[in-house]
């Protein structure tokens, strides 16, 4: 059974006249009749009752017409979906993201992209930057919200923004009443830190800024996620330095205090495989660039 036979059958069923059907199909009547006979033979059922002056659908033909119309509609939908996918209007995009991206940039970009491309299915996985690099190598993700620097020839980066660090202290801490403080004033505090292997550039910059202020930081606890840092600070176990955007993560039990001048700095970037030529990836990067400019995130 061929697709053209189904189309021929549908047109004959609509016209109930082989001559008119042949004209619509831009063919002659004899080969059209032969194709319908061949289809009936293959199906093992009679689709039309024919006479010299009259053509009617049989009961089997009526039922078959309903199913064929359904198949042809699905084929048209499949064709349209394939064209949308080729044009970057439909498909699937797997995104890795660091937890702190949810405090500002991730919701803005994801919401804007979904509004523009509602037929693209976004799959999001939270993972720290080293895990994302591994996921890129394994082709598990297409886009990543990462913390550079990243020195990997497989990956390309689009800088999003740079932000300064900010101190986070328990609500009951004396520093909670301050508008700002210096790094040196943190010398006697116990730090809650994100593990170095999770976020090496941030960890190293905090240590370097402490050394520049003349002290070795006292590390009370190291954790894997920035959200956990905030939770432990809220518990009164110590203080920390976090990216400024983290202050969008509100809690009644901590206060964010600006660090004067020598505060650590941190970058956010989008990453993707350099060899990934997907139209959808390009659409996501283009949309992100526009949203970054509109929201003045750079």
From TrEMBL:
Keyword DNA-binding among record annotations: yes
Annotated Gene Ontology cellular component terms: protein-DNA complex
Superkingdom, natural source: Bacteria
Stretches assigned to the HTH lysR-type domain: 1-58
Family label: Belongs to the LysR transcriptional regulatory family.
GO MF, any single term: DNA-binding transcription factor activity
Keyword Aminoacyl-tRNA synthetase in annotation: no
Organism: Halalkalibacter oceani
Keyword vocabulary terms for this entry: DNA-binding, Transcription, Transcription regulation
Listed name of the protein: LysR family transcriptional regulator
